[in-house]
Amino acid sequence: MEFPDLGKHCSESTCKKLDFLPVKCDACSRIFCMDHMSYTGHACESAYKKNVQVPVCPLCNTPIPTSRGDPPDIAVSAHIDSQCQSQPAKDRRKVYTHRCAAKGCKSKEMIPLVCNECTLNFCLKHRHTIDHNCLGKKAALRNKAASAAQSRQQQQSDRNNSNSNTTKNIQGDMDEDEALARALQLSMDQEAAQQASWGSRNRPIASQDQHRQGTNSSCALS
Predict the structure, then answer these.
(1) Do residues 107 and 132 touch, judged by C-beta distance below 8 A?
(2) How does pLDDT run across 50-102, given as a tens digit for each residue?
(3) What distances in angstroms separate CA 145 from CA 133, 140, 149, 150, 194, one per listed residue?
(4) In the 3-class helix/strand/coil scheme, how is the chain assigned residue by residue?
(5) Which of 65, 119, 179, 221 has the most CB atoms around its CB within 10 Å?
(6) Could you give the C-alpha distances from 158 to 149, 161, 162, 164, in angstroms and in order?
(7) 210 vs 92: CA distance, rounded Å
(8) What CA–CA distance (Å, rounded) separates 110 from 68?
(9) Average pLDDT of the chain?
(10) Pick from 144, 143, 118: which is nearest to 130 by CA?
(11) Could you tell me the pLDDT band of residue 206, with boundaries at 50, 70 and 90?
(12) CA atoms of 25 and 44, how far apart (whole Å)
């Protein structure tokens, strides 16, 4: 007596055997016989989803956690470029100093690869204008101007904060005019003290030179 609905055929193209106890692959969700149920048995293309092995840095032997499904090579490369404490990795980071300006890219190159249009530096992967969505020379000039303005604002803010802290230290219970006058007086006193210090250092040298000249002249007269 036959049972046509019992069992299923193996999904492997070279097998197709009817198996009464088939196994469903938990990675690709296909049905296989006992001979092809393993990942390697049917060359499962989704086996990486179930691979929970943690890659190890070949330089410092540190386990590198990765998200499931992500290629381990990328995580290891990123670790070597930024976190690895081995001496070869440190030497490599000293050589590879030209960082890519593409958004989200952390790659660095040994030599600068500057775009002729936007004048920014990129890695080998993003060196072409189409690869880094180049905005052109006008955008580059705007970015430079904005960066320069931001740098000037930051410097001015730092100077203002420094002057404010100095005034607060001097001010105490005095008002702003008295504190400002006190700060100017302290600055003038410091300059006068420095000039006096330099003068005292140079004076003995001058006297020694004069003494030598006098000795030489007396010797010449005799």
Answers:
(1) no
(2) 766 778 888 888 888 877 667 778 888 888 877 888 888 777 767 777 888 88
(3) 20, 9, 6, 8, 40
(4) CCCCCCCEECCCCCCCCEECCCEECCCCCCEECCCCCCCCCCCCCCHHHHCCCCCECCCCCCECCCCCCCCHHHHHHHHHHHCCCCHHHHHHHHHCCEECCCCCCCCEECCCCECCCCCCECCCCCCCCCCCCCCCHHHHHHHHHHHHHHHHHHHHHHHHHHHHHHHHHHHCCCCHHHHHHHHHHHHHHHHHHHHHHHHHHHHHHHHHHHHHHHHHHHHHHC
(5) 179
(6) 14, 5, 6, 10
(7) 60
(8) 32
(9) 75
(10) 118
(11) very low
(12) 9
The pair of three-digit structure tokens given for residue 142, joined into one six-digit string = 């705007």
**What are φ and ψ of residue 18, in 5° steps?**
-80, 120
Residue with more model confidence, 41 or 172: 41
pTM tops 0.85:
no
Sign of CA dihedral 116, 121, 127, 132: negative
Q: What is the pLDDT of residues 5-61, one digit of tens each?
A: 677 888 888 888 888 888 888 888 899 998 888 888 888 888 777 766 778 888 888
**Cα-flanking dihedrals φ and ψ of residue 32, to 5°?**
-140, 160
CA 70 to chain centre: 22
Go through the domains of the chain in sequence order and give each one's CATH number: 7-51 (4.10.1110.10), 52-94 (no CATH), 99-159 (4.10.1110.10)
Lowest mean pLDDT among 86-100, 125-139, 148-162, 179-193: 179-193
Q: Which amino acid is at 104?
A: G
